[in-house]
Amino acid sequence: MQVDDDKDPQKDGTEETSTDNITPEATESIEAQATPDTEEVTPEITETQSKIKPGPEATDEDVAQATEDAEESLDEDEDEDDDKRSAKVIRKESTRVAVALTEEVKEEAVEIDEADTSGATGSAHDAFAWDAIAKIDNRYSKEEREAMEKEYEASMTNIQEAEIMSAKVSAIIDGDVILDLNYKSDGLLPLSEFRDQDIEVGTTVEVYVEQQEDDRGQLVLSRRKAKLLRAWDRIRDSYANGTVINGKVISKTKGGLIADCGGLETFLPGSQIDIKPIVDYDAYVGKTMEFKVVKINETIKNAVVSHKALIESDLAEQREAIIASLERGQVLEGIVKNITDFGAFLDLGGVDGLLYITDISWGRINHPSDVLELNQKVNVAVLDFDENKKRISLGLKQLQPHPWEVLDDNITEGSTVEGRVVNIEDYGAFLEIMPGVEGLVHVSEVSWSNQPINAREYFTVGETRNAKVVTIDRDDRKMSLSIKQMQQDPWDNIYENFSVGTRHTGKVKNLTPYGVFVELNDGIGGMIHISDLSWTKRFGHPSEFTKVGEDIDVVVLEVDEHNRKMSLGHKQLEENPWDSFESVFPEGSYHEATVLRKDDRGAIVQMPYGLEAYAPIKLMRKEDGSIAEVDETLTVKVIEFDRDQKKLMVSHSRYVNDIRREAKDTVVRERREERETTRKAVKQTNSSNERSTLGDLSAFEQLREQLNNENEDDDEK
């Protein structure tokens, strides 16, 4: 066969060559180039290789037979000690390589013309026995070679990088683990990566393929990455499907714990450890627990797990079973797990029930802790439950008879009882006769007086009071009590002690905008209207006259026994000064007055004898146009006096106008008198018989002009 001059068969390798005449020397050269270097070749390997080296006239049957003999030899040596395992592995690989090389040589060989290679110089390609390869007969067609290549490739595992594969441990040598992936080369990992697993020859493990070949042509694997990826897959599955994963708590951190879940660290919050609050986190370090994944972060491959979720799911199943078997009135045993202001929560064995404070005791209690304690076992009755909302209402007092059913028969209307004040309302106070039996003392039953009673000021919670039973209804479980009926009604002899016109001294008990309430005796009192406080002064509020707690003298004006009311007066202790004021303050009279107070409408002024008068604000304007101020003293004119209505009205402006008018009248009167005197003098002059001189006539003329001018001024005015 003619070889193309442009192609070097040693470099290009694209020419077809014959494999009929491969010499033993050529085979040995090929094996030396293809077989991986080893530090030491054992005699067994050399012997095995010698069995598969084909001779110059080797046929396919000879090669196959040699390979079979080598494999049988390897099988016979499998029972030898562990020191020969490495040789077996290498020998097995060498056998496959030799056979593959033989086939490749047959398929890739090209016919090479005989040439003199004696002059070849020392390159690696020149040392190859190309002439021997050229003599090998090409016994397979192109189709046969392709079929054999496909069959060979099918026997190998297809390995992709960044993929998790299953591998079998084929040998463990000097801290290294040799893994068989059914690939053209075995994998090698340090034994330290299997510290979490006991392995031996034949154990199947998962590894991560980092590279199919490194710089040395070896398969690069990672056991750690395979574990992390598998762990992340399990975490994602748990998050998506709610599956349970196992993990070991390895350390404590701020706010929770760190758990190792298959080689991947996860965060276990303190609130997700248990359904009850956890104080000591250290107690969980080192424990293996089950978790559910409640949150993941795909970006940083981080996860949050929960053990509480598993407990709650178990409790949910128990809760369903317990609620399904509940009946109203059923008695259960529970453990007090929490106490609040409104009640207590009891654990009924997987489901919680609420015991309201009103269902703890028949009597009134201030707080559930007065009766219950944490972790206390108590028997309770099921009052009600809601299967949809999973709520159970419990009762403790229902296990005891109602106190009204065992109330003493001697307690009847008219009997006297002793009770403790347990509650105070605006309308009265409740007295507890015995736990669960209460009576109401209404504010109207506190005192015989009609004076309003403030129950919150009169009663104190916890104090003991005696009362008389007014009404009792055992069926409705109601009782009304009275404190005032413990004493005689003072209104029975009211006319004997407080007849109309009698004078008494009482104590001011209350002030209202319209009057003063005065207590004369226990249960006896009356009201002084604000208009009956003083004859002369007007008060905007009784507090301007007296204060609560002060003593005051009064006169009984009226008694209404039927309505139990009494009208009192204070000003009636003195004679009515208005009878004499009519002659002292007649209309038109002038008096000195002091401004006491004023507003936008008018002012109140203090007149002589303590009498107060009213002046409209427009009538308090002074001569300069300003309004009189408080505490300013000025003269006023009485413009209205009403004895019956006890009304006195004054005006300072009217006084100012009167003064102006009076002054003007005085000036006019004086001018008139002066003019009259002048007329009389002129008349006397005219009647004189004396002859007037020229000078006299001149003086007379001036006097006449003066009189005319004065008359004109008077006419203008």
Automatic annotation (TrEMBL):
Residues 1-87, 667-717 are annotated as: Disordered. Residues 58-82 have a biased composition (Acidic residues). Keywords: Repeat, Ribonucleoprotein, Ribosomal protein, RNA-binding. Residues 667-679 have a biased composition (Basic and acidic residues). InterPro entries: NA-bd_OB-fold (IPR012340), Ribos_protein_bS1-like (IPR050437), Ribosomal_protein_S1-like (IPR035104), S1_domain (IPR003029). Residues 19-36, 683-692 have a biased composition (Polar residues). CDD domains: S1_RPS1_repeat_ec1_hs1, S1_RPS1_repeat_ec2_hs2, S1_RPS1_repeat_ec3. One of its GO terms (molecular function) is mRNA binding. PANTHER family: 30S RIBOSOMAL PROTEIN S1 (PTHR10724), SMALL RIBOSOMAL SUBUNIT PROTEIN BS1C (PTHR10724:SF7). Belongs to the bacterial ribosomal protein bS1 family. This is Small ribosomal subunit protein bS1. It comes from Neolewinella litorea.
